[in-house]
Amino acid sequence: MKTMTGHEIRSKFIKYFEKNGHTPVASSSLIPFGDDTLLFTNAGMNQFKNLFLGIETRPYKRAVTSQKCVRAGGKHNDLENVGFTARHHTFFEMLGNFSFGDYFKKDAIRFAWEFLTKELGIERDKLYVTVYTTDDEAADIWHDQEKIPRDRISRFEADNFWMMGDTGPCGPCSEIFYDHGKEAGCGKPDCKVGCSCDRYVEIWNLVFMQYNQTADGKRTPLPKPSVDTGSGLERVAAVMQKKTNNYDTDLFEPLVDIAKTFKELPISDTEAVTVYRVLADHARATAFLIADGAVPSNEGRGYVLRRIMRRAIRFGRKLSQKNNGILSAVVVNGVIAKMKDVYPELSLKRDLIAKTVSDEEDKFLQTLDHGTQILNQEIKTLQGKGKKVISGETLFKLYDTYGFPVDLTQVIAREHGFTADEKSFEQLMEKAKAIAKTTWKGSAISSNATHLIELSQKAGKTEFTGYDETETHAKILLLSNGGKVVSSLKKGEQGLAITDRTCFYGESGGQIGDQGILKFEKGSAKVIDATKTNDTVIHHLEVLEGELTNGKKIHLIVNESERRSTARNHSATHLLHAALRKVLGPHVTQAGSSVAPDRLRFDFTHSKPMSREELDQVEKLVNTEISLSRNVKTEEMNYQNAIKAGAMALFGEKYGDKVRVIQMGDFSTELCGGTHVHNTGDIRLFKVLSEAGVSSGVRRLEALTGDGALNYLLGQSKELLAAKGASGSSDVENYILKMIEENKKLEKEIRSLKGGQVDIDQLANFAKDITGGKFIYASVDLDDRDVLNDLNDRLKNKIRSGVIVLIGKGVESNPISVSVTKDLVSKYNAGKILQIIAAELGGRGGGRPDFAQGAVKDLSNLEGARIKAESIVTAN
Fold first, then answer.
1. For residues 706 and 77, what is the distance between their CA atoms, to the nearest angstrom?
2. Who contacts 610 (Cβ-Cβ below 8 Å, separation ≥6)?
3. Does the pLDDT of residue 501 top 90, yes or no?
4. How far apart are CA 446 and CA 494, in angstroms?
5. Could you report the per-residue pLDDT of 145-192, keeping only the tens digit for each?
6. CB of 584 within 8 A of CB of 691?
7. Is residue 334 classed as helix, strand or coil in its secondary structure?
């Protein structure tokens, strides 16, 4: 067996299957656009799901891919194992060959065995196979066709049957295992294939899709059985490089070597190896996820990316305490440098990846240090009380107030022998999230994703006629009440309807679904929304009159004025995208959008706020293109040809082999399935409302077009004229700035007057002696927090060394200010003193060891609070 690099294995795999009639298909994005059932692309078959479901066709029946995959959230979550085992990864490459109703078990088995034993040269006696318990057919093929001895064919049940979901295509599996030898095993006499040790490793899985499972659990044979296979590149590389650990292969070693250069702290060799592996693995996931459009955030996919990055950063902290960008180095100098030739998106997004990682590192290191300090103090306090549980309140406070990840709190807690009250934390999180969410058009009919997928499978692809018309005649194929298929929907009932054809645009690509009317004999229904599952458009409706029954012929009518407004806004986003790239640079790419009749929202990659001048340039460019009244050209073409011709692929859009290209002069060319104006002049006017940050490296623009933009500008003009009249000045901006400055001066004078009413010499005279200085505790007749803090500073300068507690008097609440001079912060903590006083007076607050502030409600127990505070400062 000849040693091969990971790149050689990948290349040889593609070429072998191409030689055997398979069409090479590029890896799909890690963000599974158009499939809400998946958090990330986690298997090679994801991009072919509709082919297996029979609701999409392509010009080939055989395919071969090297698919980027991530398993770090949802059902497949290997995150916490990464770094501690030989084969767990967040990011990996899945080599796969597929048959869509073409060849089946015999050829699938032949291809796999031939590639492993002849193309790669792996010794036959090192390989074992498994089949499903009752799959005699596969077992016989392995034995008769490939001459595998019966005693090397094992049978398993749960591990050897694959299902796409609760319903849909499914079938038995056959796996190929490699024997790494006794030295890699557990040493038990009964160690064999299926043992959890590292000796026998699965390197190939062949899924034979031969059944369709319905909701009632019944399985019926598929008319065209298919094949879905997967072979993990990292595992095969370990075999070909004679390694028992994936991290010792050339796929990871260059990344590990970079991480090693940062080691400066005393750390055991065993722990250091774990750190290197975590950094190598997480750097790959980080680079590829950002390149495919994910951004660190506090929800969804962005939250998982943030967890991966922050886990790597924290492990890197074990190597060095310096703010030195360990993850950035491994990502940029390692992952991008090594894999850019195979995955060119890494080069295209290099600047974005580097900036996003650097920003997240800087931000999290501050959070990490602060949060760790607070958590360690909490653990110390609990240890003193003999307790071993971090409360849900502490978890939530660290998360909500300081941005400290819950899973990180749990890890640190475990390291100290503590557990965390996750249940209480979840309850507090639910309370925090209990905010009613509404949309501009009301809610669509509630239904779970599984039911919608089941409906789309039964109905098949919907013919969309909406590019050319807003009215069409169709036939009802399926009706649902949102939970199950029904034969009819009566007046007042809400439900879902699927037709053979529709002019209603189903929500996708950032464009919301159409609304309108559905008419039928002796009745009508209001279409509240239109959504899209796979290629099936689902109408969410409420019956207004009559009874809508399955199979009935209907008349669909889209709300035309809303469609026109939506088209204006959608076309404007294309012009906006192009304008942003011209003004800010080619690093700008779309990171999400929302297109509705009344407004548009556009998210894009950029690391800093836009200046007023940049916003003006963008607005001018877009409005210039509108004024030129360019015809909007629409053309369908092959995806690869469209990209070569310079078309931009939009974030959030799912593309097939045939794509729709929208061209607006030579200014904008993009792939898009949405509805658009026929001429840029139809947009009429474009006006930006706001520009703000969404997350690290992502900005958001909100804008108006058409009547909305015109009415907004007319309103602004009216307000400006009113302001000029009220101020008596033609230069309103300078007038307001002048008034603001004058107000600041007056406020400063007022504070000075208020502060001057308090005799600081008298307060200083009442100070008590404590170890190292003075202690002042006083209630003063001040309701202004800033004045109170200023008074505190003056007292500190007066006594030079000590602790000062000042409590003001307000209307609804009373400000409190606590300070400790710098020389005494090792003895006294302002934040803790404030918390104790606040607890006595019904308030709260916080701050640094040298200064803290807050507010209290009840001043009736000032003396009791004083005694508590005094007991703390005199105890030291």
1. 47
2. 584, 618, 691, 699
3. yes
4. 10
5. 999 999 999 999 988 998 866 777 889 999 999 999 988 888 888 899
6. no
7. helix
